Amino acid sequence: MARIVIIGGVAAGAKAAMTARRRNPGLEIVVIQEDAELAYSACGIPYHLAQPETIPRARLIARTADELAREGIVVRARVRAEAIELGARAVFVRDLEHGRTGVEPFDRLLLATGAAPIAPPYWIDAAGPPVVTLRRLADIDRCRPPDTGSVVVVGGGPIGVEAAEAYRSLGCRVTLVERLPRLFASLPDSIGDAVQAELERHGIRIITDSSVARTVRTGVELESGETIPASLVLQAAGIRPRTELAEAAGIRIGTTGAIAVDRRQRTSAVGVYAAGDCAESRHRLTDRPVWLPLGDVANRQGRVAGENLAGGDAEFPGVLGTMIVSVFGLAMARTGLTAIEADRAGFEPIGVEVTAPSRARYMPGAEPIRLCLVADRPSRRVLGAAAVGRDGIGRTIDILATAIWAGLTVDDVAELDLAYAPPYSPVFAVPQVAAELLRPKPRLAPSGG
Ligand SMILES: Cc1cc2nc3c(=O)[nH]c(=O)nc-3n(C[C@H](O)[C@H](O)[C@H](O)COP(=O)(O)OP(=O)(O)OC[C@H]3O[C@@H](n4cnc5c(N)ncnc54)[C@H](O)[C@@H]3O)c2cc1C
User: Fold this and answer.
1) Which of 68, 323, 396, 435 is the least crowded, having the fewest Cβ atoms under 10 Å away?
2) CA of 16 to the centre of ligand 1 (A)
3) pLDDT at residue 406 above 50?
4) Would the pLDDT of 448 be above 60?
5) Which residue among 31, 41, 43 has the greatest number of ligand 1 atoms within 8 angstroms of its CB, and so is best to mutate?
């Protein structure tokens, strides 16, 4: 009976274990997980932070260790994998409760070690506010504000803005510090500006173009010299893939810094796979490796890895970087490439920005959707989109993600047969309005000739 060892049991690892179990009930499957909890939704953590009663911690957990055990999956919780010996086909582990060490032999191994927050680059005063990160379910208790005090969030990416909203809804004074000149700076300016305006409308102070120099007894000091009072500092300025184990074992790390894998999630070592936030993906438009640490990608890669650990031949078809973030009910979403990314990848991008209603104009609930659409001039293929608004953003971006996935042109999108009724959509959905503007218009013959 083949023995499968999986290191990391949150999204990619848990999905791979369940998939391998379903595909081959005869396998011996062992999951090594350094935390007590596993198979949970990290994406739900900010919502649990904001509403612990409505969304209790237990609801974020898809499967407990006991439930996995009932599926015949052995869970080694509170155990850390410390080294991999490829020649001996063994993982060396340490029990974090008792300090005991041990060995887990494997026939096939999956690295699903995820990602970790980048440590604060500034000086931390031991007498100052606690500096915390929000990554694991185990982090949540340290991230709760000590009172309805002041919180500084460092970093204006998706986790930073979701956490800022959570703290504000708990009654805290919240300041968000972003190093770049605007939030979501890789997207068109109008998108980041809309997110910033929404946060400010809800009383969150945003300081862009600024970095934390150090924490002090009463809060944080910025490089500008300003001191912001804080009883808690949430560091949310980036994550890095956890590749230490792979690197030490001589497994190849890709150009993005994550573990290099092929379409079957195989690493450079025979019988060793990687999936989720520790692994690279291939971008479907550029055919280049990218690192996109997202929950749906981790689950999809985990499923492919699980099939293959169990002797299957599944392939991961790649990513487009589709994502959506909610800020006080305003949604920001993107898919594919921005014009700058498309240009760098060798396309000839053309773009348009439109604002159009989410439903028939006269219907209650109709809200403006701002959509930036990018296409390739010569082929007219849709390359990317970013949208912001309060209604219909998921539908808008998913239509365009599907179009890009299928290689559709702006002509195809403009003519798509989509569902229409006034409470759900205008006659022409917003992606169609934008696509129509990117279609070349027939020239009128010069008159008088
Ligand atoms: C607050 C937050 C909100 C998010 N929101 C979204 C969202 O809305 N949409 C979205 O698509 N994505 C979101 N994400 C990202 C998503 O949660 C991750 O992409 C996903 O959790 C990755 O799963 P993973 O299994 O690859 O890695 P992880 O979730 O990082 O899990 C890896 C596990 O492996 C364990 N581990 C690592 N090394 C070892 C070792 N040596 N021994 C034992 N155990 C080890 C780690 O402790 C960890 O528990 C969010 C993430 C966070 C933190």
Assistant:
1) 323
2) 14
3) yes
4) no
5) 43
Check: pTM over 0.85? Answer yes or no.
yes
Alpha helices in 90-209, H assignment, sequence order:
140-143, 158-169, 189-201
Report yes or no: 131 and 119 within 8 Å, Cβ to Cβ: no
Burial 408-428 (b: 16+ CB within 10 A, else e): bbbeebbeeeeeeeeebbbeb
Ligand 1, CB within 6 Å, residue ranges? 7-8, 10-13, 32-35, 42-43, 45-46, 80-81, 112-115, 134-136, 159, 242, 245, 276-277, 293-296, 298
DSSP letters along 199-239, please? HHHTT-EEE-S--EEEEETTEEEETTS-EEE-SEEEE-S-E
Q: How far apart are CA 207 and CA 200, in angstroms?
A: 11
Tokens of 241: 């893939």
Closest CA to 187 of 381, 281, 348, 323: 323
Q: What is the mean pLDDT of the chain?
A: 96
Specify the ligand 1 atom closest to the Cα of 275: 26
Residue of minimum CA distance from atom 38 in ligand 1:
113
Which amino acids are annotated catalytic? 43
Residue among 277, 292, 319, 335 whose CB has most ligand 1 atoms within 8 A, to mutate: 277
Q: How far is the CA of 434 from the centre of ligand 1 (A)?
A: 35
For a substitution probing ligand 1, which of 31, 33, 142, 335 has the most ligand atoms within 8 Å of its CB? 33
Res. 145 pLDDT band, cuts 50 70 90 = confident
Of the candidates 431, 415, 412, 438, the one whose C-alpha atom is nearest the C-alpha of residue 352 is 438
Alpha carbon distance 241, 167 (integer Å): 27
pLDDT band at 387 (very low <50, low <70, confident <90, very high): very high
207-262 confidence digits (pLDDT tens): 999 999 999 999 999 999 999 999 999 999 999 999 999 999 999 999 999 999 99
Q: What's the full length of the chain, in residues?
A: 449
